[in-house]
Amino acid sequence: MSLHHKLAVLVALGLAAPAFADNPYRLKPGATGDLCLECHLTVQETMKLPYVHTPVKEGNCSECHNPHTSAHGQLLAAEAGEICSNCHGDVVPDDPRSVHAAIVEGNCITCHDPHASQHENGLAEAGNQLCFSCHDAMATKLGNARFPHPPASDSCLTCHDPHASTKAEFLLTQETSALCADCHDASNASFVERHMGYPVADSRCTSCHDPHGGETAGIFLANVHAPLTRKMCNQCHQASSSPDALATKKAGVELCRSCHSKEVNAIEASDRLHWPVADDTSCLHCHSPHASNEDALLFMPTKELCGSCHENSVKMLDAAAFKHAPAQEGSCSVCHAPHASDNPLLMQSARVDDLCATCHDWSSHSSHPIGEGYVDQRNMNVTMNCLSCHEAHGSPFRSFAIKDPAGDLCVECHQQITK
Amino acid sequence: MEYGMMRGLRRVAVVSLTAFLVAGSVAAQDVKLRPLRPIYVDSLGTAIQAPEGVAFDGSSRLVVADTGNRRFLIFDVSEDSFSPAAEFRLSQVPLPVRVRFDSGGGILALDGKSNQVARIAPNGTFKSFVEIAPASDRGAVVVKGFEVDDDDNLYVLDTAGARIVVLDSAGDLLREIGFAPEAEFLSDLTVNASGTVFAIDSVGRRVFVARKGDEALAPLTESMDEDMAFPAAITADGLGYLYISDRGGSGIVVLGENGSFQGRHSGRGRSQGFLWYPSGLHAGGGYLFVADRGNNRIQVFEVAR
Question: Predicted ipTM?
């Protein structure tokens, strides 16, 4: 081929390149979405809906689907979330503080129909109903609340961004105090009176109030610290007229001791403190000083709270095929003392058997010798107890066995059986 | 020019690799832990109960914090043999949970009840508590672990103060090392011969380091979720290795002092060589001693490379 011919080919390829980019499958003129719709009749029906996704409307099916082959479901050209972000990447800002789980997982179609919908923005449902399709517990709560918070009942989007937020956790469009201040004027006389004159404008309102609704007119969280119910804020805080009104009168456990001296003294008399109890933050590692939806004013459900440090235990439990009910339910304190104990692992009893016996009548369930008089054959310093054969939290084997009951469990001690 | 650049890059790579291999030559050796017969009883045959601390003087004496029995046990060590030598109890230290020897044969012990470090004479008599002032903005001192270096300087892990306090043998403050912001819950520390401090994070499952002159700990490793469940104690062997007692996972994790993973040993069990919620540990003299709390014994490993 002469140089002239080579140049001609290169020029032709160069001119063709943009056309190829626009039409990667080299469809014949007119052979766009119309060609697809000849077979995909249901999409034809879908397109009659009021809100049709632009690529569908324009017949650009191949913008999302590969007409030939694909490694993804629905012949998608890439992972679903990746396809959406090609055009809608700006729904998640560069430095978000919170992102909706559906987006993180690439499940945009949880909320949006990729073809067409009855609802604006291609949403699968309208208004709060869309959110409730996943957040069903919230639907129940809002439905049952004696005093629902009107903004929450009206629309979740009053406070939450459905995609991501750069300003706050939980997809909130602003930090809590600023968000609440949109409607609640902290300088209002009634507001000041209800808050006992304390300067709470910049405080986190949700430490006392449930933003979704509650059983009291003040939409307080379900469980409220007694001094707060009696409006005795100054039991813990400086006087409202003080320049440092929100400061506490004492630090750490000493403040709590003022009322809970019996509990604190009992904790301190124990041999082993749970380490969070010991430092200056002390009780406030786990308990809210104001109000909570959890028992004992815990910041979050027990399993989540304990799991925030003891993640390994929760992981093991989640992976176990057979789970011990108290562990599964997050009733960690059935077996472990949350504050202090005289026993290792903060166990509630010195002897495992005694602890298990509070729920299980083990003396009747097995004829296997258990107790102080029976030495574990594997270790002369350990006597047979429930944990000789059972895992406390959960196990891959039935009855929470430490090993397969049909295999290694018994022969670990009874080795003569293998002969 | 491109060829010249490639040659230059290759030379840099070779030099870097050589430097890496030289620097890491100690840590590149395999560490093998061979279980020896555990220590079960005192001289009267009384069983050890839930021990949490152990220390070896490197030649002939071993001290055990027999926590469940609220006492200290001393053993004579000779050629893989551990003979009970003494027992003592101290009213000032009712719940010993960590122990170490100083260079004069004295014992330092952390009392889990009062959270204080006690100085104990070689004959077992109580001398004094180590005095530590609270951090400037904190009301309490909560000691979770401590270590003694070759010069008898004492390194105390104060979790309430988010710091490591370093005192000389007279108890005078030498320096303070702050926690790294990434630290979640530091539960023990160790010091190597060159004065580098290593701390273990039980919740974050990672190791932090502070070299001489550093004002604060910095991460040595990433979170080792796959290798550790809930690490509780750490010790350096003076030969370039760190041993970590993984209480939640009932195992021993070995790292190089550069943070490189060298292996995981033992596992959950009752038989010799296995562990059940292990607590403190100490390496030296070719041994690794582990306070095997849930098995009521001191598990002894011979360290081979």
Answer: 0.86
